[in-house]
TrEMBL record:
One GO term of the biological process aspect: protein insertion into membrane
Keyword set, alphabetical order: Cell outer membrane, Membrane, Repeat, Signal, Transmembrane, Transmembrane beta strand
UniProt-recorded name of the protein: Outer membrane protein assembly factor BamA
Subunit-structure text: Part of the Bam complex.
Keyword Repeat tagged: yes
Family of the protein in this entry: Belongs to the BamA family.
Domain POTRA: 36-103, 104-181, 357-430
Native species: Wenxinia marina DSM 24838
UniProt-annotated location(s): Cell outer membrane; Membrane
Length: 769
């Protein structure tokens, strides 16, 4: 019976609840159907908010017929303003009573518990403002924004709690109580699906880095979703520049460790196969274009590993040819046919007629310091020109390459008519100058104090300015440099260099003074080639010569200070590029300086260097050959003019450690000729990549010789005046740090002479503070 009674009571309760719900529904429907009209509105409880403001949000006019539903909607509008803690709208006969309780005003906003992010940084992240109405919803959103700011810093466990402290006069202090938590670093970055390249090589491409020894300084070992998006694009570009045209990043798996103190990031990649360039030809849908002219302009590179850069360069050549021939609105469409069986890509460069669209104007925004003309100089397109999307993209890349901006966005939008577009350039500037004081050490010159100032965008004009003062025990150097990259409004770089150097030689019985002024002009003459021409005037003097010094040096010093004038040029061809370049790179440089006036000479220098990656690009091989020749037609060289090979040229020897010497005093005399060959390999040591430590081995071979005019000395008074080769082998440790790259060389001379000055270890360290 007790069980039956329980069932009966439960049934009765359910019936009663159903009746209440039905009654409430009927009442609400009746209220909504009822019509009201008010002759007046009475507002109660407001202190700061004006009656007119409340009436505006309310939206109910006097004498207007409204329903109960409209009254409820009006009350909801007032609540949604965020100005009131409570809102009641009550019909009382012909009067509509609006009762409100205002939120307090924020007197002060404080942050407590923050150490890693300053108050100014946090204040910039929130929307609550002092002396404005407090909103709980906004305060919660601000707490979330602060939490996100910490998450970007890698502190995903940070918590933020908004607290209000009541004050007199309906005011409150808003306090954000912060627990910052520890940094959640990136513990591991790994890859799945990569066969052509090792994890270590791919990690070197990414901007995101694993936490390493210098985790407090690197700032790239914390998780940032935006950086991860960039890394996916960089990884894709890396593969495609090496022939993997079908490569794609299928997914990126981001996981937190169980302790939530570290991230594990896995890139899932599908490499596809590597392609080479197969058949290359030209087709045209533009009648006035002669195919033969355009085929002659191509660099087909058939059989080479495919790279988008090859295609882009050919497209650019063909489009430029169309412009030179006066054929407007021509677009080159590279049509690629895949041949998976042979692993080749056939490319047909098709000339098609583009839309007749002109550039109406170029609008630039965000450049508070940089002048418009500096940015416009990067455009090959001006107002009124036919629109060339490729040229616009290249201009955007040139603007980014300036290094003046943290972000560059270049887009087009419709202009004033259908055949016009406006190019919008939106930039975000960043600091371009630096002032530093520091200490520098290298094995050649010892310790020196350094003060420098540099500005890459002087007065927003795109000009470079550089001062440097180096004061050490062995030498004092002052230098000044100025550069104008758009001289006379053209792609012409004007430079002006001034340098003064004084040496206090510990290893020689004399000192030197030199002063040089050299204005120059540099301009491109091919895609990767540039030519510099310059004029130089130089003063050199040999001072404080000891009576024990070589008679040759004493004779040269007796000539006093000498002014020389020179004209010269330097040609360079450089395939090295920032970012995702080819695995093999080259640099060629050749220059000559012609002395004129009282002293006539020709100084010739040449350098060729190559670098390639092997063994899945984990090992870097480098080879360099360089040399110099100083030949006098009138006059003779002095110790201030001749070559001395320091460790930068031939490792394992002191700055004046090899070359011609006085047989009696053993003073180093330098030589008019030098030649050096350097071979080296750099490879991983099996240490975690985040440490930035790799190893290397090298061999150097070369010599400096030929003093020239002996000024009365006999041939027997000079040692090693003929080509006398030296050879060195060694091992290196490379350490990439946020302070700069460090290199430690351990050397052993395989071939040296009796009076050479060797060294078994050298290091270059540069520290700024």
């Amino acid at each position: 019976m007790a069980q039956d009674d329980g069932r009966g009571r439960g049934l009765a309760q359910r019936v009663a609840r159903s009746a209440i719900v039905v009654a409430a529904t009927i009442w609400a429907g009746a209220a909504a159907a009822q019509s009201y009209s008010f002759s007046s509105v009475r507002i109660e409880g407001n202190q700061l908010i004006e009656d007119g403001t409340i009436l505006t949000y309310l939206g109910i006019g006097r004498g207007e017929a409204v329903s109960g539903g409209q009254i409820n909607a009006a009350a909801q509008r007032l609540r949604e303003t965020g100005l009131f803690a409570e809102v009641d709208v009550i019909p009382q006969g012909g009067t509509l009573v609006v009762q409100v309780a205002e939120y307090p005003t924020i007197a002060r906003i404080n942050f407590e518990g923050n150490a890693r992010l300053g108050d100014e940084q946090l204040a910039a992240a929130i929307s609550s403002i002092e002396r404005r109405v407090y909103s709980p919803t906004r305060a919660e959103a601000d707490a979330a924004a602060i939490t996100e700011a910490y998450a970007v810093q890698g502190r995903i466990n940070a918590t933020v709690r908004p607290v209000i402290i009541p004050r007199d006069g309906n005011q409150v202090d808003l306090v954000f109580e912060i627990f910052e938590g520890a940094v959640s670093e990136i513990e591991r970055v790994s890859f799945v699906g990569n066969r052509a390249f090792s994890d270590g090589r791919l990690r070197g491409v990414l901007e995101t880095k694993q936490a390493g020894l210098l985790r407090a300084l690197i700032q790239r070992d914390t998780f940032d979703p935006q950086r991860l998006d960039f890394d996916q694009q960089v990884l894709t570009d890396f593969y495609r520049s090496r022939g993997y045209a079908d490569m794609e990043v299928q997914s990126v798996d981001v996981q937190l460790t169980r302790e939530r103190d570290a991230y594990l990031i896995t890139f899932n990649v599908n490499e596809g196969q590597q392609y080479r360039i197969g058949r290359v030809d030209v087709a045209t849908e533009v009648p006035e274009a002669n195919i033969a002219d355009y085929a002659a302009e191509l660099r087909p590179q058939e059989g080479a590993v495919y790279s988008p850069d090859i295609v882009d360069n050919n497209v650019e050549r063909l489009e430029r040819l169309a412009v030179r021939q006066g054929i407007d609105f021509v677009r080159v469409d590279p049509r690629i046919t895949r041949n998976p069986a042979s692993g080749t890509l056939d490319i047909t460069y098709t000339l098609v007629r583009g839309e007749r669209i002109f550039v109406e104007r170029i609008d630039i925004e965000g450049n508070n310091t940089t002048l418009d003309r500096v940015i416009r100089a990067q455009f090959r397109t001006v107002e009124g020109d036919p629109l060339n999307p490729r040229a616009i993209r290249e201009s955007a890349n040139r603007i980014r390459a300036l290094g003046y901006f943290a972000d560059v966005q270049v887009d087009t939008r419709p202009g004033s008519s259908e055949d016009q577009v406006v190019v919008d350039v939106d930039v975000e500037e960043r600091p371009t100058g630096s002032l530093s004081f520091g200490a520098n050490y290298n094995s050649d010159n010892g310790v020196s104090l350094v003060a420098s100032f540099s500005e890459r965008n002087f007065l927003g004009r795109g000009q470079s300015l550089d001062f440097r003062l180096n004061a050490g025990r062995r030498s004092q150097v002052f230098s000044f440099g100025f550069g104008e990259p758009n001289f006379l409004g053209r792609d012409l770089n004007f430079g002006f260099d001034l340098a003064y150097r004084r040496t206090d030689n510990d290893s020689a019985l004399y000192d030197t003074d030199s002063f040089r002024i050299a204005p120059s002009l540099q301009f491109p003459i091919s895609e990767r080639g540039s030519l510099q021409v310059f004029y130089a005037t130089e003063y050199t003097d040999i001072t404080d010569v000891s009576e024990e010094a070589s008679p040759l040096i004493q004779a040269e010093a007796a000539e006093g200070g000498i002014w020389t004038q020179a004209l010269g040029y330097s040609y360079s061809w450089d395939s090295r590029r920032d970012g995702l370049d080819e695995s093999t790179r080259f640099l060629l440089r050749f220059g000559q300086e012609f002395g004129v006036g009282d002293v006539q000479y020709i100084r010739t220098t040449a350098l060729a260097t190559a670098e390639t990656r092997v063994f899945r690009e984990d090992v870097v091989l480098r080879a360099t050959i360089e040399g110099g020749l100083l030949d006098y037609n009138d006059g003779a060289s002095r110790v201030t003019d001749r070559y001395f090979l320091g460790s930068r040229y031939l490792r394992g020897f002191d700055t004046r450690g090899i070359g011609p010497r006085d047989a009696n005093t053993l003073d180093a005399l330098g030589g008019n000729k030098y030649a050096v060959a350097r071979l080296e390999a750099e490879f991983p040591l099996g240490l975690p990549e985040e440490y930035g430590i790799s190893g290397g081995v090298f061999v150097d071979y070369g010599s400096v010789w030929d003093v020239g005019d002996l000024r009365g000395l006999d041939e027997g008074d000079v040692l090693y005046n003929d080509f006398t080769p030296r050879a060195v082998v060694g091992a290196s440790l490379f350490w990439t740090t946020p302070l700069g790259p460090l290199r430690f060389n351990f050397t052993e001379a395989l071939q040296s002479e009796e009076f050479d000055e060797t060294r078994n270890f050298d290091i270059t360290i540069a520290t700024q503070f």
